[in-house]
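Now for a sample.
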Amino acid sequence: MHDDVRVSADTPDWSRERCVGFWDPGRRLLRSIRSYQHWEQRGTPGRWLSKYWVFQHRFWSVVTGADIPLNCEIGGGLLLLHPNGVVIFPESIIGPNCQIFQQVTIGVGGSKSGAPVLGGHVDVGAGAKILGGVKIGDHAQIGANAVVLQDVPPGATAVGVPARIILASASGDSDHASRQTDG
């Protein structure tokens, strides 16, 4: 998933969210969330514009089948290439430059109380579930259909149900350094 050139875990790449044409549901949904938050922060003069973005958010939420609240905390540069079925709990925190595929749930439950916190440049595979107050480190990868109930260190990969952590070795080859952990 990762290229030789690392995507920043700190500095948002806003070009990743730029709409390409009219029919770009994931980016349009993000645009409605960002615009709503912008106009809400401006206070009274922008209230009428925030209502327009609420309508846009509802429209694109129906089109995508996604449940991403208007008040959630999402870092810049989020990619929702296939946004259908994505569910994000309102108190979850998504770091900059993350990538989330279809049918992903980021929410409460599991053994840890609270909502998940994703670091910067976290890739979450299709159908993955990240539940409870877990912390996902920068540059981590969550495999497709993984159920993550524990913290994932930076640069590691989580796979399986419940997810086991595969630590990246110094050479970057993650196949040689794995360990099973209990959730």
Remarks:
- Residues 171-183 have pLDDT under 50 and may be disordered.
- The chain has two helices and 13 strands.
- Helices lie at 25-41, 47-64.
- Residues 107 and 131 are 5 Å apart (CA to CA).
